Amino acid sequence: RQTLTEEFGHIDIYLFDQLLKGRITPSMTVLDAGCGNGRNLVHLLKQNCTVFGVDSSARAVAETYKLSQRLAPAITPPNRFRVERIEALSFEDSTFDAIICSAVLHFANSPLHFDRMLAELWRVLAPGGLLFTRLASSIGLENQITPLADGRYHLPDGSDRYRVDEATLLRATSRLRGRLADPIKTTNVQGQRCMTTWSLWKQEA
To answer: What Å distances lie between residue 114 and 38, 100, 184, 196, CA to CA?
Structure first.
């Protein structure tokens, strides 16, 4: 009998919530944008979901491909996993039914870079599709962060991250003509950092 970790890996708990709500299913074509070592793909691969992954790290992409070979060898050709930056994806428009982008967007180096990454994710998302993102924010830490430059801030945990707040995310939602799948949710990790979950439905064509 499998443990939960064996079945789901070290999945982001808020992505797990999307699975429980039936918003990402085995019949979908899914992109993990910033896939890292594939920790969020274990269950989807086991369910024979059509999974793609990109990451700027060749090592991370290689690790995710190895994971896919182990869990779903029949359905994961090498071109499913690519070394790419999110702001310059090689996929056609409207390719994916769902996109996972967990702990990635806060590595933007400026507002323009953030907007380019977001625009590319939105471009390759199909109408009616789900964009799931989780990123560091200033929500709840407004008086504890130090401005650097180009929208980046030094956080109490010692990291430097691009800053978003609720107003920024709501403006982006409106600009994309998206619809919130859930209210914006933020977890305050003992005053050291705040991680915000921002999930959007793309309008039907």
So the answer is: 23, 16, 18, 15
Predicted TM-score (pTM) of the model is: 0.95
Task: State which amino acid sits at residue 82.
Answer: R
pLDDT tens digits, one per residue of 24-83: 999 999 999 999 999 999 999 999 899 999 999 999 999 999 999 999 887 778 789 999
Residue 5 — pLDDT band, cuts 50, 70, 90?
Answer: confident
The backbone torsions φ and ψ at residue 180, rounded to the nearest 5 degrees and listed phi first, read -60, 125
